[in-house]
Amino acid sequence: MFKYGSVYKDLRKGQEITQTEACQGICSNSKLSRWENNQVEVEFSTAIALLKRINITLDEFTERANIEAKFELPDEIIAAIKDEDVPVLRKYVQAHLAKYHASKNILELKNIMLVCNQLLLIEGKNYLTTADIQRIGSYLLHTTVWSKYNIILFANSPFLLNSEIGFKIAMRIVHNFDQMNDLRDIMGGLSDTVIAFIFKKKLDYAQQLLDELRKVELPPHFMFFDLSLTFLQRVIDYCHTGDEQPVLAIFNNLIQLNCSQHAQQLLEAFKDVKQIWEEDE
User: Fold this and answer.
1) How far apart, in whole angstroms, are the C-alpha atoms of residue 193 and residue 51?
2) Is 202:168 a contact under the CB 8 Å cutoff?
């Protein structure tokens, strides 16, 4: 199985990861190059390490179908996100950004996007440089491997990315649903992207993306996503008309369906939208 190094090469290049970044501390560049050209085989442990480095599971490698990967954050950082502990999150981001800027290894940058996004939402400050944002945007815009990892990466980036780039990436994801298996992460990330466009007052992007999402045939057990999309449409309408009653009606519907937690999350998002749109009045 592991003589098929060319498969690895395609997956690595599809994520814009260099040979050096992929094999550092695992094997030599020359060994990886020879494997990718199907000239040698590598040990099982080496292959697993190389796959993990590019966030690809053994199943993805053998079947090129289902990738299971996730952001690995220390428990204390996960707790800090939950508690909105800005000093702890800020220290973590600054340390890892310094490490990334020294190494230019995109893997370092990708794995702190969640924390950067949370800090932006909590304190309104973006710790990424313009070059950092451009590199993540370029990576997502050109990737040909829409793994669960990359979907989660995008889901944690909409408020950080340039709106034009974010819109292009979102549309690429919508038009590649046939490559993806986890609709929950996809729809959640794209719904957050619509919200991000609304916050940035890019209503054209928000409406176009929402129109595409409404075309997706969702299974019956995804009914709450259909309600979320209806909510987003009414929020966009509110931004145009100032009439909040249709939005509030959504909350009543959700409560009647015993979805009070989901209703509360949407209510908090709507409060933020109102605050942003009323600032200019």
Assistant:
1) 29
2) no
- pTM for this predicted structure: 0.73
pLDDT in tens, 152-197: 788 888 899 999 999 999 998 888 776 566 677 778 888 889 999 9
Structure tokens at 269: 């998002």
The residues, ordered by sequence, that sit 6+ positions from 194 with a Cβ below 8 Å of its Cβ are 206, 209, 210, 213, 232
Backbone angles phi, psi at 246, to 5 degrees: -60, -30
Asked whether the predicted pLDDT for residue 23 surpasses 50, the reply is: yes
Mapping DSSP onto H, E and C, the string for 107-123 reads HHHHCCHHHHHHHHHHH
Contact between residue 105 and residue 97 where contact means Cβ atoms under 8 Å apart = no
3 state DSSP class of 26: coil
Q: How far apart are CA 168 and CA 174, in angstroms?
A: 10
Three-state secondary structure of 225-248: HHHHHHHHHHHHHHHHHCCCHHHH
What does the pLDDT look like over 62-96, one tens digit per residue?
A: 655 333 444 568 889 989 998 999 999 999 999 99
CA gap 87, 32 in Å, rounded: 41
DSSP per position, 131-170: HHHHHHHHHHHH-----HHHHHHHHT-TTTS-HHHHHHHH
Helices 260-278 and 183-199, axial angle in degrees (round to 10):
20
Using the predicted structure, report yes or no on whether residue 244 has a pLDDT greater than 80. Answer: yes
Q: Residue 225 has which token pair?
A: 């996503």
Q: At what angle do helices 183-199 and 203-214 cross, to 10 degrees?
A: 160
Measured distance between the N- and C-terminal CA atoms of the chain, rounded to whole angstroms: 63
